[in-house]
Amino acid sequence: MIRSRPEIAAPLLLGVLTGIFLVARVHAGPERVAFPENYAQGAKWLVVDRADRKEFHEHYVMPAAIEAARNGAAMPNGTVFTVVRYSALLDAQGNPRRGTDGHYLKGEIVGYGVMEKGAGWGGEYPDSVRNGDWEYRVFTPEKAPNTNVKLGACFECHKAEAAHDFVHAYDKLREAVR
Description:
single chain; alpha+beta; Chalcone isomerase; 5-stranded antiparallel sheet; about 25% strand
């Protein structure tokens, strides 16, 4: 039996589209996370001095995340957390200098960390690694992806916060000003 072109083309097209869908579906990784150019339009909800790195960190998030935390809910899809990492200004002995607020004085930006949630993003990871639907990416001071960073550390560190949708300082997020 000879088949016409439409009879052959339809199953072939369906097979190709299914293959593309399956390949796209199993792709996991930081490539999903773009640099959030508008991060500073969100709320600066946390400031942290990192003595282990002699760094000063400013944490930003969108107001919808603060509202979700206040309601004890999971973060909505599309939530982006951004940490801006600054070197601390050092005194003559190499110790971080502190401002009048008690925090380190910030020097140059040394990088950015981004945590973003997307529907179904975590499905490709085994349960031992998966952080819900979160992905992580680190950027250089020039806002380019930093491919030298091992992102497994992000997953390991946030795994302990599963009860709070993998968000550290969830209680402080509840108290943040929008």
